[in-house]
């Protein structure tokens, strides 16, 4: 009873710290030898983890609602989960959807808090109802919870959720695509079915070769178009396909970097922007039909000036920067370089940064504005001719238990990946 009283009087921060200490100690323990004991402990621990996921969803919801991550130089809740917690994009989106939908799911909330509903079922239900209005959401919640209680797997509950969405869509008058025809897997196929509102449904299957072509064409165009882009991957992919069909992708470039000697017969390979080597013979074949742009480098392999000190960077300078930077210069930001803005490192307004190639970098629109309004929260370093920005926490805030400030965009794996 004393321990319960202590827990009930503890703050949320104290409880989180206690839970972290317990899991730290558990991580040092070896699993019991008995399989039955491990099975029982694993089920009990899984329930505790599911309840922890409920708590985490509540915390994420507040951060998402208040926009706190933006004060730390992170443009979105998803960016925060990816950079600070190392989540994959799909996992981050799943947790955000759960955090946003729980206020509409009263029974899911109660059962998840008591450990009677697993995180897997809760996340599945949240994803199933996020496109429904409040009335349909309540009905769908009852149906999906009943299905979960009857022992249907999370996958079957997800399919039931899709069926509910289809029925709701049908009730509101939206036409539905026909059932997929049974086909083999030897040839790619696409089926286009018109809807009553003038749109269409596209379904199909691509073989591995066609999939590689699709990924190579659409994936670069399906990146978020700036940090305020709230479209999901499916919506961005559709926009990328439209861009390709309208011919807007023709300005997309593949940059191959090479020495002049390679073009005249030397065996030195060229390389892509990510460092992938390209055999010398292939470089010369590509050069026959490609636009070749000269890029002068100093003895330290640093790009020299390409233009005068004017406000707007030249197209030549931008080509150099897109060669140097695959993404925004801010650590952890994954906006592609070709979608970024040219940033004056020391700030054009201050008069300290002319539009010279060694004073410029690429920065996404959101971080470019954030850097201007939060100059004291940017740490700038330069390595091998490339600038790297780190967004620092607001003044007076430290999150390390040892009192040191944690870099909100630092990601050790990401640093190792860049170094590699």
From TrEMBL:
InterPro entries per the UniProt record, alphabetical: DUF222, HNH_nuc
SMART domains: HNHc
Occurrences of domain HNH nuclease (ranges): 316-369
Transmembrane region(s): none
Superkingdom field: Bacteria
Protein name: DUF222 domain-containing protein
Organism: Actinomadura rudentiformis
């Amino acid at each position: 009873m004393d321990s319960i009283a202590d827990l009930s009087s503890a703050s949320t921060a104290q409880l989180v710290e206690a839970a972290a200490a317990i899991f730290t100690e558990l991580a040092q323990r070896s699993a019991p030898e008995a399989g039955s004991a491990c099975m029982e402990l694993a089920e009990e621990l899984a329930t505790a983890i599911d309840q922890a996921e409920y708590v985490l969803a509540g915390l994420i919801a507040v951060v998402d609602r208040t926009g706190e991550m933006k004060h730390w130089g992170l443009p979105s809740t998803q960016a925060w989960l990816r950079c600070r917690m190392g989540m994959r994009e799909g996992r981050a989106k799943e947790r955000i959807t759960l955090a946003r939908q729980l206020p509409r799911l009263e029974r899911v909330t109660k059962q998840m808090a008591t450990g009677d509903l697993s995180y897997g079922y809760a996340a599945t239900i949240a994803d199933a109802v996020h496109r429904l209005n409040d009335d349909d959401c309540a009905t769908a919640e009852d149906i999906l919870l009943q299905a979960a209680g009857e022992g249907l797997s999370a996958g079957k509950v997800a399919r039931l959720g899709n069926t509910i969405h289809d029925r709701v869509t049908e009730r509101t008058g939206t036409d539905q695509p026909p059932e997929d025809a049974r086909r083999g897997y030897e040839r790619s196929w696409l089926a286009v079915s018109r809807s009553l509102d003038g749109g269409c449904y596209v379904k199909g299957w691509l073989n591995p070769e066609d999939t590689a072509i699709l990924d190579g064409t659409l994936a670069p165009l399906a990146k978020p178009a700036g940090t305020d882009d709230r479209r999901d991957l499916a919506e961005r992919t559709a926009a990328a396909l439209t861009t390709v069909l309208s011919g807007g992708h023709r300005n997309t470039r593949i940059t191959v970097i090479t020495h002049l000697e390679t073009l005249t017969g030397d065996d030195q390979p060229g390389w892509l922007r990510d460092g992938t080597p390209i055999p010398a013979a292939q470089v010369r074949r590509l050069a026959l039909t490609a636009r070749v742009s000269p890029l002068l480098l100093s003895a330290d392999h640093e790009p020299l000036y390409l233009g005068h000190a004017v406000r707007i960077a030249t197209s030549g300078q931008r080509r150099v920067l897109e060669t140097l930077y695959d993404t925004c210069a801010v650590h952890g930001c994954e906006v592609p370089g070709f979608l970024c803005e040219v940033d004056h490192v020391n700030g054009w307004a201050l008069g300290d940064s002319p539009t010279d190639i060694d004073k410029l970098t690429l920065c996404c629109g959101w971080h470019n504005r954030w850097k201007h309004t939060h100059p004291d929260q940017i740490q700038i370093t330069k390595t091998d001719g490339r600038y790297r920005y780190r967004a620092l926490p607001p003044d007076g805030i430290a999150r390390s238990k040892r009192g040191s400030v944690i870099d909100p965009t630092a990601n050790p794996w990401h640093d190792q990946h860049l170094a590699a």
